[in-house]
From TrEMBL:
This is DNA helicase DnaB-like N-terminal domain-containing protein. InterPro entries: DNA_heli_DnaB-like_N_sf, DNA_helicase_DnaB-like_N, DNA_helicase_N/primase_C. Residues 8-58 form the DNA helicase DnaB-like N-terminal domain. Keywords: DNA replication, DNA-binding, Primosome. It comes from Thermocrinis ruber. GO terms for cellular component: primosome complex. One of its GO terms (molecular function) is ATP binding. One of its GO terms (biological process) is DNA replication, synthesis of primer.
Length: 81
């Protein structure tokens, strides 16, 4: 039996997350098409979750949540996105 693996694209995931960081007004559009579990890489799922949570709460600084959850370790540091 052949195991099916969904396709993924690391650069596309990074581009989406970068857009969410650079332009939070893009988040509603992203949410129309993607969910946390759509991201293949664990660090991307974690960052997406934080960005969504902070966007929902409006005005919070996402940087604190990223540090608290040690997400940068999964993403090879700040310059990653």
């Amino acid at each position: 039996m052949v195991e099916f693996e969904y396709p993924f694209d690391e650069l596309a995931e990074r581009a989406v997350l970068g857009a969410m960081i650079k332009d939070p007004e893009s988040i509603p559009t992203v949410l129309e098409h993607l969910r946390e579990e759509d991201f293949y890489f664990e660090g991307h799922r974690l960052l997406f979750s934080v960005l969504y949570k902070v966007w929902e709460e409006k005005g919070r600084d996402w940087d604190d949540d990223v540090k608290a959850r040690d997400i940068l370790r999964h993403l090879q540091g700040r310059v990653y996105i």
